[in-house]
Design brief:
Number of strands: 7
GO molecular function: acyltransferase activity, transferring groups other than amino-acyl groups
Oligomer: single chain
Order of helices and strands: EHHHEEEHEHEE
Pfam families: Acetyltransf_10 (PF13673)
Radius of gyration: 15 Å
Structural class: alpha+beta
Protein name: GNAT family N-acetyltransferase
Length: 153
């Protein structure tokens, strides 16, 4: 497994990984309507190549197969962070997170923050994040519980 920066050629796999993870993993914590709003059938509602290229997006590359990815923004915000359904609880997320944290330290970022799903909350807690507050957000007509979380580096 190699952790590396996103390349535009990864966009298709990253989009599919996002869609499959939400639909097959997050469904354990959210309703069918919620996951369909979160990851609509048209997975290209977001320009993956452009967005991922404009952030520090790290991918876990397993001989050409993307096993996970995470995005760091210059202000310390971790946006998307997903591991493929077949790589859950295998250390892939930790490897991606450690690459993100190392980059943040290199950039002089003093704290990281994210909005974690119910599903991702325990992972971020294991990485040393604390819950700032629970909130509800609405996307495409569905309301979701998520957690604002932060970590001082």
């Amino acid at each position: 497994m190699k952790i590396r920066l996103f390349e535009k050629i990864d966009a298709e796999q990253v989009a599919q990984l996002f869609h499959q993870t939400v639909r097959e993993i997050n469904i354990h914590d959210y309703s069918s309507d919620q996951v369909k709003a979160w990851a609509p059938d048209n997975i290209y509602f977001r320009n993956w190549a452009e967005v991922c290229s404009n952030r520090f997006t790290y991918v876990a590359d397993n001989d050409g197969a993307i096993a996970g990815f995470g995005e760091l923004e210059p202000d310390g915000h971790i946006d998307c962070f997903y591991c493929h359904k077949d790589y859950q609880r295998s250390g892939v997320g930790s490897q991606i997170y450690h690459a993100i944290e190392a980059k943040a330290l290199e950039l002089g970022i003093s704290h990281l923050h994210t909005e974690a799903s119910i599903t991702a909350k325990p992972f971020f807690q294991r990485m040393g994040f604390s819950v700032v507050n629970q909130q509800e957000v609405t996307r495409r007509g569905a309301t979701f519980v998520q957690y604002k979380m932060a970590k001082v580096l």
